[in-house]
# Entry
Amino acid sequence: MPTTALLEAHWEDIDHVLLDLDGTLLDLDFDSHFWQSRVPQAWGAARGLDAAAAQAILQPRFDACAGTLPWYSTEYWSCELGLDIAALKRQDAGRIRWLPGAQRFLAAARARRKRVVLLTNAHPQALAIKHECTGVLDHVDASYSAHVLGAPKEDLRFWRALRQVEPFDAARSLFVDDSATVLCAARAAGVGFIRAIRRPDSAGAALGHEEFSAIDALVELLGPD
# Structure
């Protein structure tokens, strides 16, 4: 059995299963394509620029916001770029899809009577669009957006705010995410079981995640059939 799989003894020590959305449950390819291609194309077209030139201008602005609430906000970027980001996401919604095995893992976790909670930096507008396409919220017991809690998952303030609305024993919780920065924050918050996703984007390269036990997909936590 892979060392990253959860043994029966592990499951007995877990009450809450805390899961990221994009790159853990859903394919990050949608977001990668959206911000690297769709947005530069739309923004550039309004300014007589091709997508490559537009991306070169926009990337420093994106980088400056990385890891902050504005970076994840559809409302912020709609205002900043003069685009209807939510409408553009709906136009591209055909690319929104589950990562392989994610639904099976969710069903298995709930069958074990674990409380399954979605923790996402996604703006509520973006989450609503992804739910419309996948029904993802129907597979969890609760969901919390960083925009409602007032801080991104990278920030310990997120984890403190989360405890106010979703009381949980961090030491008896499993958290899975693809972001090393977020995983470090979860560790600092005392989460007892942490796994990193190596392949959040089906079209992208695998991530290293040297600090954490890593899996390609959530379903690996269930071990062999």
Remarks:
- The mean pLDDT is 94.
- The longest helix spans residues 29-45.
